[in-house]
Amino acid sequence: MADETNIDPTESFPHLSKAPIVEAAFDIRARAELPWEEKAIAEQLKQRLPEYPVTLAQHAFQQDFQFGPNQPAQGTYQESGLKGFRLQSGDNLHITQFNRDGFVFSRLAPYESWEYFSSELFRLWDIYADLAGPSQIHKLGLRFINRIKLSPEHQDLRYYLVVPPLTAPELHLPFVAFLHQDTFAIPRLPYFVNIVKTIQLQQDLGAVGPALIVDIDVSSEQPFALEDGILKDRVAEMRWLKNKFFFGNITPEAVEAFR
Questions:
Q1: 8 Å CB contact between 85 and 55
Q2: How does pLDDT run across 12-63, given as a tens digit for each residue?
């Protein structure tokens, strides 16, 4: 059995002023227990989040099929109620979703800092919890997508990755594509980490050059009651795991370029 992982949320990590993060997102799955009425929720969001002027109502749909002997399949398609709202900030950098079954917050590039990201995350979550009234959280997800541009002088992935893809010994083959995925369970703790590393090829006739994508997704599927007051502790621990996997996979030389 693997040893227990000692998580230290107080551990400091290098601050990267040029962090390659293109999107940071946090997903909280929790069921609304207060009335979820479109007009009332929309009015509350308008009053409490004026800095998110773009609001789009999202509705759930249900599709049913009936099959019978010697008859073509017959389907019905009907709306099954309000799913939630998607809101976007005036600067288009923040996107949040207030749904009947949970809450999502995303920050697009440029990413400023964890302190800024987490403060807005918890501010919006408090508003969602007040409107939806969930008593339990069912699942958490923290995802950071990094896009590292491959500079002309550093095309070799050994410059960026601690464990780069390698060809067979004595075969000098041209590198075309790369996709690697790992999923880890954290022993005795309610976390899983999924990390995907791949190459994004050049696009738009050179307007967007090739890049290394490092996609880190930390999740927890252990439910807990909101009254337990452990949400912020879980978030801090998931952030620690995200940082450990990022800095553990990227070479010191590459990290230095992001400072």
A1: yes
A2: 999 999 999 999 999 999 999 999 999 999 999 999 999 999 999 998 755 5
Cis omega before residue 134 (within 30°)? no
pTM exceeds 0.85 for this model: yes
Distance linking the first and last C-alpha atoms of the chain: 38
Centre a 10 Å sphere on the Cβ of residue 201 and count the other Cβ atoms it contains: 11
Number of CB atoms found within 10 A of residue 33's CB = 11
DSSP states of 94-120: EEEEEETTEEEEEEESSP--HHHHHHH
- Helix (H, G, I), strand (E, B), or coil: what is residue 4? coil
pLDDT in tens, 112-141: 999 999 999 999 999 999 999 999 999 999
Measured distance CA(185)–CA(192) in Å, rounded: 5
Q: How many residues does the chain have?
A: 259
Tokens of 18: 């040029």
User: Residue 39: which residues within 8 A CB-CB, separation 6 or more?
Assistant: none
SS3 35: coil
Other beta carbons within 10 Å of 167: 10
Dihedral angle sign, alpha carbons of residues 27, 118, 148, 96 = positive
